[in-house]
Each structure stands twice: as structure tokens, then as C-alpha cells.
Specification:
By secondary structure, this protein is mostly helical. Helix content is 71%, strand content 0%. The radius of gyration is 45 Å and the shape is elongated.
Length: 296
């Protein structure tokens, strides 16, 4: 009992608000359906008998009064700050609600307007007529122009037309085109094969240019979501972004195929070009000089 007294007085485990002892109903009392009022009387009689010095500071009624007092003090301390936070949040959300405008009566018309404004913003970003122009970095049509003229252009300038083509490759192609007989003149088929192989080297930088332009067009979508309508309908904005992104993704393989076809078209050698006429004149002149030397 002395140990229990020390625990209830807080000498064993000191706590800030103290320890309040209570006597709960036993399982036998519950089985016998003892009333709460009778249990409280038994609790009071037990405390008065065993711990008369601290009986008034223990028990279920004293615990209820203590918890109620602590709760009221906590509410009194937190209520002013809570009231201020509620007023600030109410003002913020009221301003946000006012920014959304009037209720939407015709949903179809509102949907058409939002999509139209998004499309107009996307086109204006590409054309450079948008009101919100970036001043820190290139974006939109300016970025695409930079990709074509700077990135892609410089890549083409660094390509060596004769890169990866050695004299041994040329001689091998000529010998393979002549078969078992030595040729007096350079076979045209060997020339076409070598030229087409060099032209195919343009395919990789062209496809890289398409990829960079595709990435920029996807990045433009994020710059078109700052309109008030987009902020008012965030789910609609997400859906529009998903649709446009998926559409651009579907067109990418088709664009790559078109670029590959263009490179294949470039591989056609137009022998009627003036440069070939000039080369034929040089060849004819060399052959005439050889004939003259033989006659001499």
C-alpha cells in the first residue's frame, strides 16, 4: 500500500499533471450488471478506506473534472489563434472563389472557349506573339528556330562529306562493280553506292533535330496552362495536356518516317546537274589529251 501511495503522489514516476487513480469495474461486476452509480459509490468507499488522505484527489469524478478543466483552458488558449487562422483562410478562399468568376451555365460553350484559348495560346507561343514572353531563355518558336539553324545547322557543317570513306573503300567498290574484268572507265554503280552511303549519314542528325523539336513542342504545353480558365478547371487542363501530349507522341514516328524518306530521296543522283556536265567536260578533255599524246 505504501508503494501505491508513492505512485499516486508522483514520487515514483513524476509527471507534469500528476497521477489520478481510479477503480474500474471488475469482470464480475460487469457480468452481474452493476450500475455505474453503484460502481462510483464503491470506488469512493474504497478510496476513503484505503487512501483517506488523497481520496479527494482521486477517483473517476475528480478525473472527469480535471480533464474538463484542462480542455477548457486549452480551448481558451487556442481559440484566438484558431479564430484568426479561420478568418485568414476564409478570406483567401473567398478571393479564390471570386477569381473563378460567375457560375457556368452552358458547359459546352465553356468547354469550347477553354479549348479555343488553349489552342490560341499554343499557336501564339510558337509564333512569338504571346503576351507572356520569356526573357531568361529561348522558348516556343524561337527555340525551334534555334534548333534548326544553330544546333542542326552546325551539326551539318561539322559533317565531312568524305568522312568514313577511304581510298581503299573507293577502289574496293570499283573492283566489286567491274566483276572479273578490269574496267577502263569508273563504273557508275560504284559511284552511286558510295554517294548513297555518305548521304545516309545525314539521317541521324535529322532524326535528332526532329526529337529536339518534339521535346520543345511538348514543353510549350506547360506554358499554355496559366490562363484563368485553366486554373479554374484543373482536371480539364490535365486532360487537355494529356490529349495534346499523346497526339504529339503519335505524330513523332510518322515524322521520323517522313525524314527517312526525304533522306532516301536525297540519295537520288541527278546526273543532269551542271556539276556533272562540268565533270564530263573535264573527263573528255583528259581523254582527248591522252589521244593526242598517243598519236605523238
Amino acid at each position: 500500500m505504501d508503494h501505491a501511495m508513492d505512485v499516486l503522489c508522483g514520487r515514483v514516476v513524476p509527471v507534469k499533471l500528476g497521477i489520478i487513480g481510479v477503480v474500474n469495474r471488475s469482470q464480475q461486476d460487469i457480468n452481474e450488471q452493476q450500475d455505474i452509480s453503484e460502481a462510483l459509490k464503491d470506488e469512493g468507499a474504497f478510496l476513503q478506506k484505503k487512501y483517506p488522505a488523497i481520496a479527494n484527489r482521486n477517483g473517476t469524478p475528480y478525473l472527469a473534472r480535471t480533464l474538463n478543466r484542462l480542455l477548457m483552458h486549452h480551448i481558451r488558449d487556442c481559440l484566438p489563434e484558431l479564430k484568426t487562422r479561420v478568418n485568414v483562410m476564409a478570406s483567401q478562399f473567398q478571393s479564390l472563389l471570386n477569381s473563378f468568376g460567375e457560375p457556368v451555365d452552358d458547359k459546352a460553350q465553356a468547354l469550347l472557349q477553354v479549348i479555343t484559348k488553349f489552342a490560341a495560346a499554343y499557336c501564339s507561343t510558337i509564333e512569338g506573339t504571346s503576351r507572356d514572353i520569356e526573357t531568361t531563355e529561348l522558348c516556343g518558336g524561337a527555340r525551334i528556330c534555334y534548333i534548326f539553324h544553330e544546333t542542326f545547322g552546325k551539326t551539318l557543317e561539322t559533317l565531312d562529306p568524305l568522312g568514313g570513306l577511304s581510298m581503299l573503300d573507293i577502289l574496293t567498290a570499283i573492283r566489286n562493280a567491274t566483276g572479273p574484268r578490269p574496267a577502263l572507265f569508273i563504273p557508275e554503280i560504284s559511284f552511286e553506292l558510295l554517294v548513297k552511303r555518305q548521304i545516309r549519314r545525314l539521317e541521324e542528325p535529322c532524326l535528332r533535330c526532329v526529337e529536339l523539336a518534339h521535346e520543345e513542342m511538348q514543353r510549350i504545353i506547360q506554358h499554355c496552362g496559366t490562363q484563368q480558365e485553366m486554373m479554374r478547371f484543373p482536371k480539364l487542363h490535365e486532360k487537355i495536356v494529356d490529349v495534346v501530349t499523346s497526339m504529339l507522341r503519335r505524330r513523332l514516328p510518322i515524322t521520323n518516317q517522313m525524314v527517312e524518306n526525304l533522306v532516301a530521296i536525297l540519295a537520288y543522283i541527278n546526273t543532269k546537274h551542271p556539276d556533272f556536265h562540268e565533270a564530263s567536260y573535264i573527263t573528255k578533255s583528259v581523254m582527248d589529251n591522252d589521244v593526242i599524246d598517243q598519236r605523238k
